[in-house]
Amino acid sequence: MAVPPRHIAFYAPLKAPDHPVPSGDRLMARQLWAALDRAGYRVTLASELRAYLRDPDDVAALCQLKQDAAQERARLTALWATDPPDLIFCYHPYVKAPDMVCVPLARNYGIPYVSCEASYSQRRNHGIWTETQADLLDTLHHAAFNICLTGRDHAGLVKAGVPRLHRMAPFIVTEPFMTDPHPQVGHIVTVAMMRAGAKADSYIAMARALEHLPSDLDWHLSVIGDGPLRSDIQAMFASLPAGRVRWLGALDTPSIASSLSQGAVYLWPGCNEAYGLAYLEAQAAGLPVIACRTAGVPEVVSTEAGGMLVPPDDPVAMADALVSLLRDPARASAQGETARQHVLQHHSESAATARLIALIEGLFMSTSTA
Question: Which of UniProt's keywords are assigned here (predicted)?
């Protein structure tokens, strides 16, 4: 479908698409930008201002953010005087990363405003977050529409009374992962950053599960990723038999795809994951995924589409799932192919592009006939 040459201003207050530190947020921002570009829109970066308010008691940080945002608005006002956007697309505004740049401009100049992956959390209403969350809800109520990537976010916004909600599945660029699988016997693969919090919790859960594997099982684990907790995380696996775990560090996408193509199973518990794009990459590469049935993981891993979900905090169940696949390579291969086809159909960049076109063009059609 050919789209009109609309100008879309893109803003990601948590982390700009060109931010130097890799993360799932940065990857999704890049992929949304690419999908909008692929659709035929002219996408420009509204601002690189990072609006991350880590501490609810840091009043000075909020004041500084307001000053910085005011400067950005002045810059954009001058820039957009000759080249205004037709639509503003804001990725992942939430209580800790509010959009203080584009929202006032959208209202002042009547520019349609769209949010994607906004979230609301009642328990965050304290300190400066009370103000930012109130502003966020007001923004979402006035947005042209709001895109939800997970059922959990959708339910939270429905409960908060946010209107004009639309679902879109998380997605990846599948092409780098489409080489034919050549699984090595017993090869488990994990791709994850090494930092405190949920990531460290998942590494702990994974190490505990591996401790329950039978001694006669032929297995080895490749860990792709790096971060400030690398030495601490490596220590979590010290009790495992020597030589079982390879620490590959941070790799580029082609190298990750190559490692995945040699895997037999992808393992990552997913503690408190919003959804996890690495799960989609693994499945696109033809690997069956073993994860916990927790948080947003079921958005991208399905027992009906080649995945295996086990209860959280049950290392024995995770170990049993591993054994069932590693001792039956034919089953693992079949589940991996099922997962690959599911990702291609429901979580690909082409599916996301089509969904974005339908939503955006539907908006302009409705306003032109109103």
Answer: Transferase
